[in-house]
Amino acid sequence: MLKTDPALPVPQSIAARAAWLKEAGGLEAAIDAGLLSEPITLPLAEALVLGFMRQGVTKYLVVLGHGSTAVGEVLRLYEAHGLVRSWQFRNEVEMAHAGTALRWVYGETCAVVTSIGPGALQAMAGSLAAASNGIGIYHIYGDETTRGEGYNMQQVPKPVQGLFGQITALMGQSYTLHTPGAVRDALRKGATTVFHPWRPGPFFLNLPLNTQPEPVALRIDALPCAPHVSPAVPADEQAYSDAATQLAKHNRIAVKAGGGARPFGAELRRFAEACGAAIVLSPGTTGVLPDAHPQNMHVGGSKGSISGNFAMQEAELLVVVGSRAVCQSDCSGIGWPNVQNVININADPTDVEHYNRTLALRGDAGAILDRLSDRLAAEEPTPSAGKVEWLKHCAEKKSEWCAFKAAQFEAERPVDAVWQRPVLTQPQAIKIAADFCKRVGATKFFDAGDVQANGFQIVEDDQVGETFTEAGASYMGFAVSALLAGAIADKGRYAVAFTGDGSFMMNPQVLVDGVEHGVHATIVLFDNRRMAAISQLQIAQYGHDHRTSDNVAVDYVQLAGAVKGVLALSGGFDRVSLTHALEQAQAHRGLSLVHVPVYFGDAPAGGMGAYGQWNVGNWCEDVQRQYTATLI
Prior knowledge:
By secondary structure, this protein is of the alpha/beta class. It is 40% helix and 16% strand. Helix 4 links the parallel strand 2 (59-62) and strand 3. Helix 1 packs parallel to helix 4 and helix 9 packs across helix 12 (365-379).
C-alpha cells in the first residue's frame, strides 16, 4: 500500500527524498502512482543514482576519492533507507573484476565508482575483462572540473581539455557529463551499451567534480529504463535452405562453440545431433554440451586437446556459433586447414563475416539453430553413413584424449627442483580440486596463466556456469577477485578460485575484502614459484626460459593466516592431504586459502600438452606462411 500522500510535494533535500521514496514503496512504485510525473530539481549526482535505479542498478562497488564525494554522499543517504547498497574495496582492479563477475555469474548489473587518476586507470585496466567477455557494467569516474581554473589533482598533466574522456572513449563507450542537463542522454547511451543484446560491455561515465552537485531539473519518470530487445533471425528463407544444403553435402562437420553459444546449450546439442557434427569448445564454453556427450570433442586451439584439434584439422565444413575467432582459439587463423565452407551464426555483423566462403546467418543463435534443426529433421532424419564414419573417428580421438588425461592424473608424482621432494603436478592438483567442486556443487573460477591453460583442458563440466575462465583478457588476479561477487549477489553461492602464485599476488587484498564482506569461498593457490605458462612457451620456442621465475620463498599459509577471519591451510603434497584441506576449507563459513606446492619441469606428467599453433615468437614465420595458403 502506498503510504506517501500524493497531494504532498516531493521533498527538497536528498535525505528527505530518500525517506519519501522508501515510504512510497520504492522508485517504480512512486512512478506508477504518478508521484514523479512533474519536473523536480535535484543534484546531478542524485539524478544519476535515480537513473541507475530505473535500470535496475542499485549496487555500487566503490573506492571513493576526492572526485566522488558528492556521489558518495547520495549513496550514503539512499543506502540508509535501503534503496541502494555499496561495498568499499581496497583496489580498483579487484573492484572491477568483482563487478564483472557479479554480472557474468549472477546476472546482476552494478556500478563501480572511483576518481580519475591512478584509481580510474586501474579500474579501466580491470575493465578489459568485462570488454573481452561481453559483460555489461557501469564505470563511474570523478573527473576534473569544467571551469579550467588550473590543473586538477590527478588529471593527466597536459594542457588539453577532457583527456580522461578521450582515454575512456578509446577503452569503450563513454560519456562526460559536462552539462547536467545531458543526464538523460548519458543514461540512454549507457543502457544501450551495458544491456546490449549481443555484445554488452563497460560504459564509462565521467563526472566532473563541479557538475556532480549542480542542480538539474527533470522528470524522474522520463529517465530511460534498461532496453529489452526481442531475438532476431534472418528473414530470408533461402539462407536456411542454403545452410541445409551445405550441411547435407558435407560429412566432416565441426561446430566451433564460442562465448555467444553459452546460453544455447540445448539448441546446440539438438543441432549437432541432427547434422552429425563434432563440437569443438572454446576455453570459456566448457559445459555447453555435457562432458561425456559423444559429440563433445573438448577444447580446440593453440592449447586445445587431442580430440578437439583433430576435429579442427579434419573438418571440411565449419559451423561457427557465437565466436570472435580469437587467435588462440583458431590457431591464429590456420586451425581449419581442410575447411571448404563456413556457416557463421552470430548477431554481430562484423564477426559473422570473419572467414572467407561464409554463409552468414546473423541474429539470435538459439533461434537460428532451432530453425536449422527443424529443417534438418524434415530433410535428413538420420545422419548419412559418411557422417556416422566421421563421428566414429572423432570418438576414437576422444577416447585417446580421455586415456591420456587419465594417465597424467595417475602418474607418479615427480620430484620438484624447488620443493626438493615429490609433489603433485599441476594437472593432478587441478583435477583433485575440480572433482571436489563438482561433488559439492561449487562454482570454479580460473586465473590466467598455466593454471588456466591446464584448467580448461581438465574440467569436465556438464552445464554452463560450472566454470568461469577469464580467457578473453587473460587477466591475472581475476579469479580471486571474482570470489567477492558471491558476497554481493542476492543469492551468492560457494565458489573456488584456482590461482597461481603470480596471479594471487596481483590481488592479495581479496583476503581483507573477503572477510569484510563475508564471502564464503576458497582460494586454491597452486605454487610453482614462476610464470609457468611463459616459461614453457620460452622453452618450447627457444630452449631456455628467462626471467619468469624467482628464488623468493613465500609462506602463503602464514601470509593468509595473518588476516583475521581467513582460514589458511596447507594442501600438502598428495591427493589425500589436498582433499582433506578442501573439505576443511568448505566447512569454514568464510574465506579460506589452501596452498598447494606443484611441480614444474620436463617430466612428461607435468602438463597437459599443446596441440595447435599460434602466431607468436619464432613460430610467426611458419604460422604466417600457412595463413597465406588458407582458403577461409
